[in-house]
Amino acid sequence: MNTTTTIPSPPAGQDLANVPMKFEATPIPVADFDRAKAFYQRLGWRLDIDLQFTEQIRGVQFTPPGSPASIQFAPAGPKPLQRLLLVVDDIEAARNELIDRGIDVGEIWHAAPGQPPEPGRDPRGQSYSSQAAFSDPDGNQWVLQEVTERIPGRV
Prior knowledge:
The protein is an alpha+beta fold and 155 residues long. It has helices spanning 33-43, 91-100; strands at 25-30, 46-52, 58-63, 70-75, 84-88, 109-110, 118-119, 130-135, 141-146.
């Protein structure tokens, strides 16, 4: 089985935007802001704000350690978010830290593109292959993904 992944460079002449646009935050649907706040604090994420703007509007924002992007709580919607990626250098260390913090994290698994998942860390240690998942109390699913070497052109 060939598991080599080739990522092409952007095509010559691709029309790339010139104006910088930085991903800042995404809303995470939660039913109970206080319960969600306690969970994300237990993760060890930085609480950026918790402001009660009006009786009906509260702003809560967290930033994962080392991340330039944040999450903001939003009223619960019809479905929780799935496969929110958290890139880590060492999936075993990240998983163990979360477990030590009382978070229920699934087992580590790996898969080549287009292949079914297999238990355990990628035996060849390839970037982007090893993953583990956990969910917040509202069912929003986070996936730890081990990245030790970035795709060319990525920061």
